[in-house]
Amino acid sequence: MTQSQKKSPHPVVSYIDRHAILFSFLVFIGIFIVGDRLLNEYFLPDAKGIENSYYHHGLRKNYHGTVSWGAEKHPLYTNDLGFKDSRCRTVPRSTEKHRILFIGDSFTEGAGLPFEQTFVGMFRQAVPEDDVLNAGVVSFSPKLYYYRLKYLMEVEKLQFDELFV
Predict the structure, then answer these.
(1) Partners of residue 85 on adjacent β-strands
(2) CB neighbours of residue 101 within 10 Å
(3) Which residues contact residue 37 at a Cβ distance below 8 angstroms, ignoring those fewer than 6 apart?
(4) Cα 43 to the center of its chain, rounded Å
């Protein structure tokens, strides 16, 4: 039997063979998207992922619940601004105290830790005379810092003396 007489492979198999890199990439992206959704459900409980049309996403306001980070569980509290806090509370929009606002991503939020063990929580304990607020949120970026700060100042009318990014 000559080469020309051999039966050609199925057209789909032939297409995949010719485009193996593209096919592998698409499979990887599919697995990544599904994996990301599953991990978000496991690691990011209902306190996370609150959509906002102004600054994309944040934490629920006045949330009190238990969150899991791997095998560890700890309480999570947010205040009425949707900031991770030591307890649910109403934050006055202006204060006579010196107010320091931290904004950042998961490191600033202290994902996986109770508030007191985050660096913002430790900072608050070190300067109890100041009002220290934690506006950090998992998956934030510089563009979202800007939108969140603009929202806090223009809509919430939050006043602060210092900002740490």
Answers:
(1) 77
(2) 22
(3) none
(4) 11
- Return the residue matching tokens 């105290």: 97
The first and second tokens of residue 9, run together, are: 């492979």
Query: Do the bridges between strand 99-102 and strand 162-164 make them parallel or antiparallel, or are there none, so unpaired?
Result: parallel
Q: Which of 91, 61, 86, 103 is nearest to 158 (CA)?
A: 91
pLDDT band (50, 70, 90) for residue 25: confident
Cα dihedral 118/137/48/156 (nearest 10): 110
Distance CA 84, CA 74 (A): 13
pLDDT 10s digits, 72-94: 888 999 999 999 999 999 999 99
C-alpha neighbours within 13 Å on the C-beta side of residue 72 = 8
66: nearest Cα among 47, 53, 85: 47
Helix-, strand-, coil-residue percentages of the chain, each rounded to 5: 40, 20, 40
